Amino acid sequence: MKDTAYNILTKTSCYHCGDEVISKQFKLAEKEFCCEGCKQVYSLLNEAGMCDYYNLSEQPGIKLNNVQESKFDYLNDEQISNKLLCFKDEKLSKVVFYVPVIHCSSCVWLLENLHLINPNIVQGRVQYMKKEVSVLFQHQEISLREVVILLAKLGYEPSISLANEEEQKVKTNKKIYYQLGVAGFCFGNIMLLSLPDYFDFTGRFHQEMGSWIGFLMLILSLPVLIYSDLDYLKSAYQAYKYKMMNLDVPISLGIMALFGVSVFEIVSHTGAGYLDSFAGLIFFLLLGKAFQQKTFDTLSFERDYKSYFPISVTVLEETGNETTVPVSKLATGDRILVRNAELIPADAILLKGRALIDYSFVTGESVPVEKVLGEMVYAGGRQVGEHIELEVMKAVSQSYLTGLWNNEVFTKNKESRLTSLVNSNSKRFTIIILSIATLAAIYWIWMGQMGVGVKVFASVLIVACPCALALSTPFTLGNALRALGKRNLYLKNAAVVEDLAAVDTIVFDKTGTLSDTSKSKAVWYGNILSEKEMMLVKSVMRASTHPLSRNIFQTLAGEVTEIEEVTEYAGKGLLAKVGGQIIKIGSAAFVKGEKMFTGQTVVFVSIDEVVKGYFAMNHVYRTGLENLAKELVGKYNLVVLSGDNEREKESLEAIFGKNVPMYFNQSPNDKLQYIANLKSEGHKVMMLGDGLNDAGALKMSSVGVSVTENVASFSPACDAILDAKEFSRLGNFLQMSKISVRIIKACYAISLLYNIVGLTVTVQGKLSPVFTAIVMPLSSITIMLFTTLSVGYFAGRVLKVWG
């Protein structure tokens, strides 16, 4: 544990937040605190055995004001609390709060260990970039109000608003325009006051009126410093306080250098100062920042990505027909059909069927929860068993579904190489620039030109800001993600583009991936099925999302009936109970207990342990597969893994060649282990499979791609979802990802060249701070335009979009 309060010039710092201790009355266990709030937080952590929190950094805590618990009484209203909750069952509730004071790793550590403070809190998870914390808690033991009060007592009071999130964002984004307006007003007036001094060739005006004009300019500059420049100074102070180096440190040093020297000259009557440069510098910095924000909002690949998110859902029309629609078009009041293993896309009421909901994506609890007719079923659950019918009660939350896809349970703990490179280089870059600025300033001061030295110091820090370097990766990968989305390859996040570029081995599943099950014909061999038996088989097929099941379902005629129970065994088949009869549908080994080789993919059917026959699938390979194979052979290591028998081996060898390894009769676990072995040999593996059946292999691979026709194929295990119609463009997708990485490297070169030229001119005192403030945003704008135009150009050539 760190030392207790320390003294600097007899001043004692608060053990929790680091503020000065004025009174000795707030003392606990030899530790001194500035107020009762900080003392309470320490007491909470100490009782929970969580004082390791103080080892993370010096004074990691946030200063806490007195918490008025009564102001949270409105959370006792059930209607209000239900609006805030995103999930609730018999035992657990989940809520997501925006907590603006989250600022460092200490905050993350504390909020993710809330369960140690109060055991009724099951889990806390922080989205640092969004400043959001999700809390899963036992609502029978602790209320939502008590959760909020606990957060407030720890110094993390959430910002609670029932208003539309987008409206809140608009209000937040207006702040920069207010800051820009203040800076522009003051800059214009300071320039007007400076004009007489610019044209005072005799110096008489400065002698008579200089001091008064100087003080007026100083007054006008204070709003610029206190309000317009506040975000830069706060960011730099936080970096200094926690011994970090961010991009705002050199900017703030340059600004304070200009302001400090100006105040000295005006107060000492030794000069007019540089307040015009100071105000102009901040005005143009904010102007560039506002332009960047506007451009970023326009591109907003994050928003576009969510709108492309391809989960589809089966909607039941009034006529009884089933229609597949994108989940984004799902509306309140729609009646939907959810099959076994499908994800529930929106909060809905159960209308028909027996619902067993697996909420492991939401709560981590894998035991299915049974729901009764008329009960609410929350988005994110997965149906286990027979198909059910639901009525949508709330609009679909794309961001919520995206959050499920990015759930840490399914992350592969891969760090982006490019992001890591940018972060490390930005820190080194900042240190180097600080050194250059200091040396240049010392040189000019030594030459007897202190004013030039100050201007050079500020100019170097501004012109060499590594913002362009930091923007290159997210803008390039984000634009690439959007371009790929336009061709119906939907990536989990922008970092997957980089992973695609690194792939050297491609592993293909066969059924539903290489073969087009929508065009395959299911032919029945065996005893003639009665009308009732046909209905039983079709009803069971309706409950499955497997491509073969969907194909057989479309082939069979007749009505469907209710299923009492159904279990789907990955890679094997279905076991169901319908009308008291036991139906088994799947492989020969699963249904008959023995293997059978027919030269085709077969799906056996037994009713009450009597084998009735089998469906034989005449496989049709995907359009363009031969050309795709020719394109990929020689560039990548190709492998075919199939759960079917090897009778189609000759056909596949005619397409891929005899040098491509092919393995048949592979179980889901066999596929997973094969990919694990490839990765252990250092290969970057992309696996293409049909979703849930290959979930293990998709998760194990470097890039897992789920190939889908028109069913709901949302699987957290995969990194991307590919519309089967675009399968033949796989080579183009890989080529586009490689081009994107090259564009990022080109951005690095542009940024480096810009800084070399800019620094060469600036250290000679040839650029003023105001001019560098204009030039600096141009580097960021150049990178944004370069990445947008470059990705757009190559997307047009390679993907035939944005042409």
Could you give a short description of this structure?
Helices cover 47% and strands 17% of the residues.
What does this 3D model show about the protein?
With 803 residues, this protein is an alpha+beta fold. It has six domains: 7-55, no CATH class; 69-162, Alpha-Beta Plaits, CATH 3.30.70; 173-301 and 416-472 and 745-760, no CATH class; 307-410, Distorted Sandwich (Calcium-transporting ATPase, cytoplasmic transduction domain A), CATH 2.70.150; 475-516 and 621-736, HAD superfamily/HAD-like (Rossmann fold, 3-Layer(aba) Sandwich), CATH 3.40.50; 521-618, Calcium-transporting ATPase, cytoplasmic domain N (3-Layer(aba) Sandwich). The protein has 28 helices and 30 strands. It has a seven-stranded mixed β-sheet with strand order 18-30-29-28-19-26-27. Strands 10-9-11-17-12-15 form a six-stranded antiparallel β-sheet, with no helix packed on it. The protein has a six-stranded antiparallel β-sheet with strand order 20-25-24-23-22-21. Strand 1 and strand 2 (11-12) form a beta hairpin. Helix 12 packs parallel to helix 17. The chain is globular and about 110 Å long.
Task: Please render the helix and strand layout as text.
Blueprint lengths: L6 E2 L2 E2 L14 E2 L2 E2 L3 H12 L30 H7 E4 L3 E7 L6 H7 L2 H4 L3 E7 L4 E7 L5 H10 L11 H9 L1 H24 L5 H25 L1 H12 L6 H21 L6 H25 L1 H8 L3 E5 L5 E5 L8 E4 L9 E5 L2 E4 L1 H4 L5 E3 L4 E2 L4 E2 L4 E5 L5 H8 L11 H30 L3 H14 L3 H20 L2 E3 L3 H7 L3 E5 H5 L6 E6 L4 H12 L4 H9 L9 E5 L3 E6 L2 E6 L1 H4 L9 E7 L2 E9 L6 H8 L4 E5 L7 H8 L5 E2 L4 H13 L4 E5 L5 H6 L2 E6 L11 E4 L6 H33 L6 H31 L4
Parallel strand pairs: 19-26, 19-28, 26-27, 28-29, 29-30
Antiparallel strand pairs: 1-2, 3-4, 5-6, 6-8, 7-8, 9-10, 9-11, 11-17, 12-15, 12-17, 13-14, 13-16, 18-30, 20-25, 21-22, 22-23, 23-24, 24-25
